[in-house]
Design goal:
Elements (H helix, E strand, L loop, with lengths): L2 E3 L11 E7 L2 H11 L4 H4 L1 H5 L10 H14 L7 E9 L8 E11 L4 E9 L5 E10 L6 E3 L10
Antiparallel strand pairs: 1-7, 2-4, 3-6, 4-5, 5-6
Length: 156
């Protein structure tokens, strides 16, 4: 288990930044398809994907969205954060093996503990793959929590 301390509303500052990274693996694509119900063959079938504009399988766009959610929930502001909204523009395909880095930046502190955050996702070549913005409800007080350790998950 890992211990995480959140950043409460009062300690957030415009311009403050955080990041979160993950490499896209085969199991991620399969699990995301199973969880979401999105079985689009461009994500799962190499022969179909070879005939697509990308010439190979690509990750679900919302997989990047899920990584943004993880970054907000586990890095900044962190545990206790509540999502109010998210915009995303997909600017580049994500392929298996890509290492994605979510970069967060506080844009504005709003009344009633609300915060606007830039949510951008880059691949390992520092190319923008998702450009977006979130509005969240920040935690009111600082707390440290143990993140739940998930059981091993196997596919097939």
């Amino acid at each position: 288990m890992s211990q995480v301390t959140n950043v409460p509303y009062g300690d957030l500052e415009v311009g403050q930044k955080a990041s979160y990274s993950k490499t896209v693996e085969e199991k991620d694509i399969q699990l995301f398809a199973a969880l979401s119900g999105d079985h689009n063959p461009v994500h799962l079938d190499p022969e179909f994907a070879a005939r697509s504009p990308y010439k190979e399988r690509i990750a679900h766009g919302m997989f990047s969205g899920a990584l943004i959610s993880a970054a907000v929930a586990c890095t900044m502001p962190g545990p206790g954060t509540i999502y109010l909204g998210q915009t995303m523009q997909f600017t580049r395909a994500v392929k298996l093996g890509d290492t994605l880095t979510v970069r967060l930046e506080i844009l504005e502190k709003l009344p009633k503990f609300r915060v606007r955050i830039a949510t951008r996702v880059y691949n390992q070549h520092d190319e923008l793959v998702v450009d977006g913005e979130a509005e969240i409800l920040a935690p009111r007080r600082q707390q440290s929590v143990e993140l739940t350790q998930l059981p091993p998950i196997s596919i097939g």
